[in-house]
Structures are given as structure tokens and as C-alpha cells.
Amino acid sequence: QVQLVESGGGLVQAGGSLRLSCAASGLTFSSYAMGWFRQAPGKEREFVAAISWRGINIYYADSVKGRFTISRDNTKNTVYLQMNSLKSEDTADYYCAAPIRKYTAGSSLMSGYDYWGQGTQVTVSS
User: Fold this and answer.
1) What does the pLDDT look like over 55-65, one tens digit per residue?
2) Which ranges of the chain have pLDDT less than 70?
3) Is 111 exposed, middle or buried (0-12, 13-18, 19+ CB in 10 A)?
4) What's the CA dihedral at 1, 68, 107, 63 to 10 degrees?
5) What's the Cα-to-Cα distance from 28 to each of 12, 37, 89, rounded to whole Å?
6) What is d(CA 81, CA 49) in angstroms, rounded to the nearest whole number?
7) Which of 1, 41, 87, 119 might form a disulfide with 93, Cβ 3.0–4.6 angstroms?
């Protein structure tokens, strides 16, 4: 079965950086777009970034453009989220996700994904 396991979260001061990783198994990773979402306490889950199966198409939420970078390493079956210049409003649980369909460009919608990781917590102190 498909498994997505996030790691790399933690506590960081405002202005700092973290790199999240999401290791995928149970699927031909290089054939799938991947996405990152986050959910802050008391808020709905929201889109952060997505990358197409080839890595050519990349999308970001406006709130993270210029600060976050999504990338993938198909040799390691892993997608990354490099987060720089972190702000207190970036505090959330971060989830990676994969669609059930192959060869897609990626999506900013939760409905575009079928498999989800368990999340990793990011806390940014001000």
C-alpha cells in the first residue's frame, strides 16, 4: 500500500529555516505529482506547494512564494519542502500528499490527492 512519511519538523525561531522531507513507498514515485499542505490549529487544511511528476510544473501558495521551495529526488522517492524566512503564521502541521493518478501536473486542491502522510509539526516562535 502507499505510504507517505513526513519528517523534519520542529521548533524554529522566526526568520529561521527548516527542510521537510516526505518519503514515499508503495508507488512508482517518479510517475506521481506530489503536494504539500498545512493545517494550523483551529484552521482548515490549506495548500502550500505542489510539483508535477516530471518536476517541471511547480506551484506555490501566495503566502509562501519566495520563501518556500518544493523539490523532488526520484532516486530517493522523496519530496522536500525547504522553508526559509519562517514566520509565526507558518506554524502548522505539514502534510505531503500524492494523487492516485499517474502523470499529472499537480494540484492546489485537496481533492486532487488521495494519499496523505501523518504530518509533521512545525512551530515558529516569534
Assistant:
1) 999 999 999 99
2) none
3) exposed
4) 130
5) 33, 21, 34
6) 8
7) 119
60-64 long-range contacts (CB < 8 A, ≥24 apart) are: 61/108, 63/89, 64/90
Give Dmax (Cα) for the chain. Answer: 41
Evaluated on CA atoms 32, 78, 112, 116, the torsion sign reads positive
Pull the grid cell for residue 12: 524554529
The C-alpha cell of 15 is what?
Answer: 526568520
Phi and psi, residue 56, nearest 5°: -85, -40
Here the cell at position 59 is: 506551484
Separation between Cα atoms, residue 90 and residue 103, nearest integer Å? 30
